[in-house]
Amino acid sequence: MNERIFALEAYACFSDEKAVVTEVVITQNSSIAVWAVRPGQEVEAHCHPDGQDTWFMLRGTLTYYLGNSQRQTLSAGQFAIADQNQVHGAVNEGTEDSVFVSIYSAPKIGYAKASA
Hints:
Blueprint: E1 20-26, E2 31-37, E3 42-47, E4 52-59, E5 61-67, E6 70-75, E7 79-82, E8 88-91, E9 98-105, E10 112-113
Antiparallel strand pairs: 1-2, 2-9, 3-8, 3-10, 4-7, 4-9, 5-6, 5-8
InterPro entries: Cupin_2, GPI/OXD, RmlC-like_jellyroll, RmlC_Cupin_sf
GO molecular function, one term: metal ion binding
Domain Cupin type-2: 34-104
């Protein structure tokens, strides 16, 4: 990997239809993506059977799903860790666009829908 420094906001690609994820880099140990979530859009509840997903909020606020109908506000400057098989997801219930970085460890962590 030649490039080591990334301007993450440049990877935020918004859509009026749905939340958008853009892969930034994949290495042997992790995968990093940027999510762009407009007001009213959702990253549906899910889990990863083969790894951890860490979200770092760059901009805005999301209502983060913790599973078992629990939710918590996740704001710019905060991060949330979903370990292997822990339910997570979010909805933008605010009035501003939200951007967060998702760091998957290991890079191939699988995906399974779950209840919020």
